[in-house]
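Protein modeling request. Please complete all fields; requests missing the sequence field cannot be processed.
Requester role: graduate student
Desired output: 3D structure, C-alpha cell encoding
Chains: 1
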Amino acid sequence: MTALFKKILCPVDFDRVSVPALEMVQKLALQNEATVYLLYVVPGSSLPTDLEQVARDNLRGIAQKWLAEKIAHEIVVSSGKPATGIVSAQQTLNVDLVVMATHGRTGADHSRLGSVAEQVIRLASCPVVTVRPR
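Delivered output (134 residues):
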C-alpha cells in the first residue's frame, strides 16, 4: 500500500486544544511512515533568540511525548502572522497534509478573533484537517 502522506505539518500553540490534533498526527504518521513537522509561529515581525529557544524547547517536549522515537520529526519555528506562517511552512517544506487544532469558535467570538484554521484552509495548497477540542 502506498502512503498518502509522507510529510505532515502540525502547527501547535502550546495549549490543550492542540492535543486532539497531536493524537491524530501520531496515528497518521505511524500509518503512513511520515515525517512530522511540528511548527510554532511566534506572532510578530521578528524572532527574538530567547523566544525562539523557548519555542524549540517546548516543541521538543511535545515531540518527546507524542512522537517519541517511533516517528521521524523536525522542529520548525518562525515568526509572523500565524496563518501566513503556517501556509509558508506548508509550501516551503512541501508537505502533503496539514493537521491543526481549531478552537471551534462561532458567532461573535469568531468574527472578533478570526480563525487561523479557516485562513489556512483557504490558502494552503494541500489538504488541511482541522480537529476540534473534545
